[in-house]
Amino acid sequence: MSTSTYNSGSDADQRRANRTKKRNAAEKRFQWYGRLSIAFGIACVLYLFTDIISKGIGAFTQTYINVEIEFDREMLRLGEAPTEKEIKAASFNSFFKKTLRAKFPEAQSRREKSQLYAMFSSDMPLILRNMVIEAPSILGTKQNVSMIADDDFDTFFKHTYGRDLNAEDRISRLSDFQESILGKLVDSGAVEKRFNTIFFTNADSREPELAGIRGAIVGSILTLLVTLILSFPIAVATAIYLEEFAPKNKITDFIEVNINNLAAVPSVIFGLLGLAMFINVFGLPRSIPLVGGLVLTLMTLPTIIISSRSAIKAVPPSIREAALGMGASKVQTVMHHVLPSAMPGMLTGTIIGMAQALGETAPLLMIGMVAFIVDVPGGISDPATVLPVQIFLWSDSPERAFVEKTSAAIMVLLTFLIIMNSLAVWLRKRLERRW
Amino acid sequence: MLDTAKETYQTAGEPFLDEPKMRVRNADVFYADKQAIFDVNIDIGKNEVISMIGPSGCGKSTFLRCLNRMNDTIDICRVTGELFLEDQDIYDRSIDVVELRARVGMVFQKPNPFPKSIYENVAYGARIHGLTDTKVELDELIEKSLHRCGLWNEVKDRLEEPATGLSGGQQQRLCIARAIAVNPEVILMDEPCSALDPIATATVEELIHELSENFTICIVTHSMQQAARVSSRTAYFHLGKLIEVNDTSKVFTNPEHQLTEEYITGRIG
Ligand SMILES: Nc1ncnc2c1ncn2[C@@H]1O[C@H](COP(=O)(O)OP(=O)(O)OP(=O)(O)O)[C@@H](O)[C@H]1O
Ligand SMILES: [Mg+2]
Q: By three-state DSSP, how is residue A348 classified?
C-alpha cells in the first residue's frame, strides 16, 4: 500500500487529469486577463476619440450670413478710379455699420445697434476693404457677400438654435434682440453653415471665428524639419561609429550608459538646457522653430541612436564577413551592406522619434514658443508656435468656440501622429519585403 | 612573453613543397592570451586542393582565416610568424588587406549571399575592385562566373531577383561564383558543405574539382569522405598543432602519425 500509492496507474492518471484541468483553467484565465486589458485599452481609446470628435467636429464648420451689400461710392467717399492708398484710407468701418443699420432697421437703440454689429466678425470691414482693393470694379455695384458670423452667433446657431433644449443645455451668449435677428435671417435663408476653411488658412487670433491652425501646423513642420535634418544624420553617424568602429572599452561603455540615461531624461529639462544654451549663450531669439528644432533634436537623439544601434546589431554578422572576405574595406562594408540592411529599422526609429517630437509641449514652453502669434511663420527664424502648444493655449481660453477649436486641433494633431506612425509601419514593411 | 612554454614538435609527412603558392612558417595565433595555433609550418601548392581536417575546436578555421587575414576583424586575435603568398609577406605593414583578400578569396560555412539581387552579389567584387569598365564587360564577367559554378542555367532568367530566394546549395554556389568573379589565386573554404544536403554537396564538390584547374583551394571539412573525394593533400590538426600533412590517399590509408590514425579510425572525434 505504502509503495503503491505513488505508482498505481489509476492514481497517476487521476492526478494527471487533475493537473491538466488546472493547467487548462490557468491558461484560459491568463488569456482572459489579456483580453480584458485589451478591451479596457480599446474602451479608453474609444472614449477619448468619441469625446474629442464630438467636441471638436463643430469647429470644422463655420456659419456665414449672406448679405447683399451695395458698395456705395458716396458712403465710402471714393471716386471713379481710386488708388489702393485711397481705398485703404476709406472708412470701411463706418460704411459697414451704416450698411448693417440700413439692412436691419429694427436696431433702434445704441445697445441694439452695437449688438447688431457684434453678430458679425470684427474682421468684416477689413475683408470688405480687401474685396474692393482686389476688384475696384465692384464699387457702385451690389454684391452678395458671405459674412463670417461672430463666434457667439456661430456657436449659438450650431449648437442651440432650433433645438428644444433645457435651459442649462442652451449655449447662448446672444441677447434676445440678437436671437430675433438671427431668427429672421434664418427664415430668409441667409444663414448657412459651410466647411471652415478659415480654420486651416489662418494663424491664431483673439477672435475665435478667425483663429486657425495654419500657423501652428507650419510652425510644427518647420520645427520638425530642423529636428529631422539635425538628428537623423547625427544619430545614424553616432550609432554606426559606436557599433562598427569604436573600440569596446570603458569610454564607449560610459557613452553608451549616458545615451541610455539621456533617453530617460524628462523633456522639460531639455527645454531648460535649450534656454540656457541656445538662447542665453548663443543669443538666438526666443520662440523660433530653429531653437525649437535644436531642443527637440537633443530630446530625440537618444531615441534614434538607440533604435539605430539595435537595427545595426540585427544585421547578421555573416553579411559583414562576406563583404570583408570579398576585400571590401570596413567603410565599404558598412556603407554597402550594413547600412542598407539597417535602414528600415533606423527610419522606423526616426519616425517614431519625430512623432514624439511632434507631440512635445513642455520643452517648447521653456524656449518661449508659447507666445501668441498671429502670423504664419515664413521660415525657421520667424516666431512660431506648434500644434500641441496651440492646443495648450486654446484650452486655456474661456470662449466656447475655443473649446471646440481645442478639440479640433487635437484631431488634427492625432491625424498627423497616426499618419506618421502608419508611415513608419508601411516603410518597414515595404523596405523589408524587398529582400 | 608567452613563449616560455613553447615546445617544438615535428609535423609528420611532407608539409613542404617546391615552389609553393603559400608558405607558412612558425605561425602562432592567440585569442587574447589563449593560444589557438601552435607553431604551424606548411606549404600550399599551386592549383592543389588541400583539405584541413581535425576534431572540433582544433583550430582549422582559425588557421584558414590567417591566410587572408580575416582574423584581423577579430579585435583580440593576434597572429605571429611568417606567412607568404608567393614571395609576399601577407602580414607585412605595406600589404593592403583589400588587395590580399582579392587574391585570396573566401567561402564561408553558412551560405551568406548579400541581401541584394543575384546579379549584384556576383558583381560586388568587380565593382569594389574596379575590375570592369563597362556594363557589357561586367555582364560577361557575371555570366562567366555563374557558368563556372554551374548556376547560369538555373538563374539566368532571375538575375534581378533577391539572392536570398535561392536554395541553400544554390546560395553556396553563388557565394563561390561571387568569390571567383574577382579572379583570386587562392580560395579558402570553411566547411562549405556543412549546411547543404547530400545532392547539393555533391554539386559543390564537383565544382571544387573543376575549379582546382585554375585555383588553389584550401578547404576545411568535417567529413573525411569529402576530404578524400576532393583533395589531393590533407592536413590534420590536433589541439592547435599541425600533426601531419600528406597526400590524401596516404593520410587515409597509411597515416604516419599515431594521432592521425586515431582520428581517421574514429577514436578521436
Ligand atoms: N573569436 C574567438 N575568440 C576567442 N577564441 C576563439 C575565437 N574563435 C575561435 N576561438 C578558439 O580557438 C580555438 C580554435 O577554434 P576554431 O574555430 O579555429 O576551431 P575549428 O577547428 O574550426 O572548430 P570547428 O571544427 O568546430 O569549426 C577554439 O578553442 C576556440 O574556442
Ligand atoms: Mg571551424
A: helix
Residue-wise burial string across A291-317, b where 16 or more C-beta atoms lie within 10 A, e elsewhere? bbbbbbbbbbbbbbbbbbbebbeebee
User: B148-163, pLDDT tens digit by residue?
Assistant: 888 999 999 999 999 9
Task: Say whether B73 and A322 touch across the interface (CB within 8 A).
Answer: no
Q: What distance in Å separates the CA atoms of residue A31 and residue B179, rounded to the nearest whole number?
A: 52
Q: Which residue has the cell 611532407?
A: B14
Say which residues have a Cβ less than 8 Å from residue B171's Cβ, sequence separation at least 6.
Answer: B111, B113, B163, B164
**Which ligand 1 atom sits nearest the alpha carbon of residue B55?**
25
Chain A closest CA to B240's CA: distance in Å? 23
CATH topology of domain B2-264: Rossmann fold (3.40.50)
Q: In sequence order, which residues have a C-beta less than 8 Å from that of residue B12 and are 6 or more positions away?
A: B243, B244, B245, B246, B256, B257, B260
pLDDT, tens only, A306-340? 999 999 999 999 999 999 999 899 999 999 999 99
ipTM of the complex: 0.88
Q: Do the bridges between strand B186-190 and strand B241-247 make them parallel or antiparallel, or are there none, so unpaired?
A: unpaired
Residue B248 Cα to ligand 2 middle (Å): 20
For chain B, what are the domain ranges? 2-264
Stated pTM of the model:
0.82
